[in-house]
């Protein structure tokens, strides 16, 4: 059987997964209602978090498809996938046109010499402008230095949601056949008899984990035929070392499922069990003398924070797994598959290093869903020292705002050491590209939403470590801290809501040292949210029924990680997200502060 390997890439939300689902459905691999976004968290958030493998059969060909995440925080995962396929479907929204992540994934594809197939999707949108988008895509190809051959890309118009593709906008089409035919025509064949004759070489671009089989390597067979039970050498391009192992099981992908096979041939994408210490980019080969394939880069972490056992007064009430040993085992398991993650396991806490707030938030979200409870400290950026120079992570930030709001955004970004790299105007919107240190950006997202009244769009992507931007004077908001245990009452919250944004509503259980809101002015403020109305005989105008409370700013994981202050912890349980002071009483906090000053 012939094999072709493609990845589906795009900016977030442009329709990659809908397209993959439709391809699987129309080739009979999945049923109506089944989606590639199979993870519970993905379904809840409506985004793809993990890239996933699938395959379809069309005519005489097996097409391996990798659906990738569009969110910029997962960009390095997409990059790894691109190393192992032969062409991409670059999906572009027929209304929005190319967006920042379109540019990033296209750039990587072109650099790798791939010739993309462009899918202009969502042509059913009332405001769709497919011809304009086609032109913009062509401009982007040119800007990114595409070769003659790459510029000759095929274009397919689609309504992924309905499973329709067409070559010309005026064509009549009921399904994705036109796209499938373009794939067969354009994507080079991965399999051949000649390749099968060579000694095997396989390179993993992703890892998976199974409770029974342990770590699994997902990779492409570049050459040769691999057999279940076969002995292998694993070569590491960086260290040059070779070690031995044995493939206990081999799986290929069939639809969304994995299928155990006795052997697999060159060109196919497989999952291999039995190699517990295998890592991305290593070469699995037949003979120690074979050359290793070029290494695959895994981006380094940019932020870190501490994971601790929850020791708040509410500890253990809501979680199933709460001990340091349980948290440690869970994190060790995470390291099996979460390639960008690093962890220092210290005696009484763990330092976790990740690729950004979303990367960490997703780990925490998965843990709380599984019943874990813990607390974490404020994320800090990671500094590096290279050649006596202090470096820190920088991001490219694309901001699209109504032109009238441009001034505020530029002023705020300047304070956070963001420099303007490019600016353009499109209709009534300004598009500004900044380069800014991650350190300056931490905590800005929420502010940005407020400043632009929810009308602004902001995308950012880590671009690497650069010389430190020096001191950044960010104004962080002080906290409103409870000085009482008990139930928060509407009456006291009503009086407190003028002094800051509250994180809790009436009826919430609070404890001494819990952060119940921010303080608009000045320093941290100790307050009593449990205080009821004084009992008097007087009838006051503000009778309880008349108190209208502003809805609280509900703490989510991401919001919590963003607004947490240095001396606080974010308490994460299956049911709640709370902020708290590390030292619960005012006395302890004063003492700790004095000690620090000494
Ligand atoms: N109108 C219209 N909406 C579509 C079409 N295709 C996808 N959508 C919608 O666009 C949204 C995003 O679709 P997804 O397929 O999840 O997008 P994605 O590119 O996989 O998103 P990420 O994986 O999170 O980057 C969903 O609400 C879809 O219903 C289409 O052809 N037309
Ligand atoms: Mg998706």
Q: What can you tell me about this protein's structure?
A:
By secondary structure, this protein is an alpha+beta fold. Helix content is 24%, strand content 32%.
Short structural description:
With 598 residues, this protein is an alpha+beta fold. The strands form 6 sheets. Strands 18, 19, 20, 21, 22, 28, 31, 32, 33 and 34 form a 10-stranded mixed β-sheet that branches. An 8-stranded antiparallel β-sheet has the order 12-11-17-8-9-16-13-14. Helix 3 (75-82) packs parallel to helix 4 (100-111) and helix 10 (357-369) crosses helix 15 (557-563).
Can you give keywords for this protein?
alpha+beta; binds guanosine-5'-triphosphate; 24% helix; 34 strands; 8-stranded antiparallel sheet; binds magnesium ion; 598 residues
Write the layout of secondary structure elements.
Blueprint: E1 2-10, H1 16-26, H2 40-45, E2 52-58, E3 61-67, H3 75-82, E4 87-93, H4 100-111, E5 117-121, H5 130-143, H6 148-151, E6 154-159, E7 164-166, H7 177-186, H8 193-197, E8 201-210, E9 214-223, E10 226-227, E11 231-235, E12 242-246, E13 249-254, E14 257-261, E15 263-264, E16 269-273, E17 283-285, E18 303-308, H9 324-337, E19 342-345, E20 350-354, H10 357-369, E21 374-376, E22 380-381, E23 384-386, E24 389-402, H11 406-415, E25 419-426, E26 429-437, H12 438-441, H13 444-451, E27 457-467, E28 478-482, E29 486-487, H14 490-496, E30 509-510, E31 514-519, E32 525-527, H15 557-563, E33 568-572, E34 577-581, H16 586-597
Parallel strand pairs: 1-3, 1-4, 4-5, 5-6, 28-32
Antiparallel strand pairs: 2-3, 6-7, 8-9, 8-17, 9-16, 10-15, 11-12, 11-17, 13-14, 13-16, 18-20, 18-21, 18-22, 19-20, 21-33, 23-24, 24-26, 24-27, 25-26, 28-31, 29-30, 31-34, 33-34
Helix pairs in contact: 3-4, 10-15
